[in-house]
Amino acid sequence: MIIQIPMSIALKSGISENSTVDVKIDDGKIVISNTSDLDFNLNDFLGQINDQNLHVEQRFGNTTGTEFW
What we know:
This protein has two helices and two strands; from the N terminus they run αββα. By secondary structure, the chain is an alpha+beta fold. It has a domain at about 5-45. The radius of gyration is 18 Å and the shape is extended.
């Protein structure tokens, strides 16, 4: 989905084309936040995996194109 943001708002928020943003619902409102100043680290995310939030492998049937597994 694409959301168009007025240029004046984008400039004030530091959002530009292809910016990474966080989208969440807050009290029934869509809130879009600029995340370009956040430092994401894959190892931090992987470190949060535990037995309670680890899901089982999913199978989606036979291949239909050039993918393989």
